[in-house]
Write a structure and sequence with these properties.
392 residues; alpha+beta; Glutaredoxin; 5-stranded mixed beta sheet; 4-stranded mixed beta sheet; 17 helices; 51% helix
Length: 392
């Protein structure tokens, strides 16, 4: 739904039985009304398996059958608005009732509903779900970037940002037909195989969540430790309000101690936007980062079981930093812009709440042992560069 040459494309993986999907669909409808020329919504199917939840599968097939008569979106809306009713029923009666209410050709609808082609289409979408790593509904991509949650104002900011990107591409001469491909073209690239290093087991290598390399920009103003030309760069998206996330960064720093000349650790920020304290902690971290004092404060709080805003301010006071100056910096445009940029890059990289670190562009599990992964990456890089393991 929406113009094919829209500046912003939402690709939504959804299940008609899912109440969260229904609420998200209402938000998307509102945004389509507000951005009729700039937004396109593409629906992908993510029903539960047919044997486990036959009604979920049947609803998806019903929507596809309605689509063959040009009424997909009307059927889509009716399924979501009546999900509480039909999800407890059995048989095909509920989809036929909706088809009748919408004035569809019922004999044709029944033939299409029985078609194996519709099952193949659903299985194809489920294959995409598996490849993209979704574990729940709804799943959303905005111009190729995976977005984990959908507050209305956050989606508005995404749309405005993507409109600016699209305008730049149009000025460079991109055709309307090729705009979407240009917008998503730099998101990912194929990854070479990861070679096994001495002492690194297959299990430890399999903690890498993806064989895809994500291009995550690293700038001189990002908090980082290690040489800029290091063989291995780990980028960690930090949320100081989550103890497991802080521990993951601490583990990366411990791994860097083993490889001080060949490993670099870079910190970007990705606080949970629905938690005010998490956003304020991230703003304070950025304000400290701009003054070159992030690592001093992080070292003081990293060993604590949990961190809150008061903990951070206590560390700031111990270093005799001026609180009023930092509070002004937390609220200024530069800090807000830095946070927006970091969170945008996190979504484009496919970062999730359970996987916040990228080692040489590859997402890896929070439970992974970074030292083993770094050792493997060092030998992989050496093999490609013609360097022996002893020289690394």
């Amino acid at each position: 739904m929406g113009p094919k040459d829209a500046a912003v494309t939402f690709v939504v993986f959804s299940d008609f039985r899912c109440p969260h999907c229904g609420r998200a669909a209402e938000t998307f409808r509102r945004l389509l009304a507000e951005y009729p020329r700039d937004l396109r919504v593409v629906f992908k199917f993510f029903p539960l398996p047919e044997k486990r939840e036959p009604q979920s599968w049947l609803a998806a097939k019903g929507a596809l059958a309605a689509g063959r008569q040009g009424r997909f979106w009307a059927f889509h809306d009716r399924l979501f608005s009546t999900a509480q009713y039909w999800s407890r029923r059995s048989g095909t009666g509920f989809v036929e009732r909706i088809a009748t209410e919408l004035g569809l050709d019922i004999p044709r609808f029944r033939r299409d509903l029985a078609s194996v082609d519709l099952d193949k289409r659903l299985r194809y979408d489920l294959m995409l779900v598996s490849r993209l790593g979704f574990s729940g509904t709804p799943g959303l991509f905005i111009n190729g970037a995976k977005v984990p949650h959908y507050p209305y104002m956050e989606l508005v900011r995404w749309i405005e940002f993507e409109k600016l990107r699209a305008a730049k591409l149009r000025r460079k001469g991109n055709s309307p037909a090729g705009l979407y491909a240009a917008l998503i073209g730099h998101t990912t690239m194929p990854s070479p195989a990861l070679h096994r290093a001495p002492g690194v087991t297959k299990t430890s290598r399999e903690t890498l969540l993806s064989s895809t390399v994500r291009r995550v920009p690293v700038g001189p103003d990002d908090a980082q430790l290690g040489p800029p030309n290091a063989l291995v760069t780990a980028v960690h998206f930090l949320d100081l309000s989550v103890p497991a996330n802080v521990r993951a960064l601490r583990n990366l720093l411990l791994a860097r101690r083993r490889f001080p000349q060949t490993m670099r650790v870079v910190v970007r920020h990705d606080p949970r936007s629905h938690r005010r304290e998490a956003m304020e902690m991230a703003a304070l971290a950025v304000a400290l980062q701009r003054r070159g004092q992030f690592w001093f404060v992080f070292d003081r709080v990293a060993e604590k079981r949990s961190i809150d805003l008061n903990t951070l301010w206590a560390a700031v006071a111990a270093l005799k930093l001026d609180r009023r100056t930092l509070e002004r910096a937390m609220r200024d445009e530069m800090t807000r812009g830095r946070l927006d940029r970091d969170r945008f890059d996190a979504r484009r990289a496919g970062v999730t709440w359970s996987s916040k670190s990228l080692l040489k562009g590859r997402l890896f599990a929070r439970a992974a042992q970074p030292g083993a992964l770094v050792e493997s990456s060092r030998h992989e890089q050496a093999a490609r560069g013609g360097i022996t393991g002893e020289e690394v």
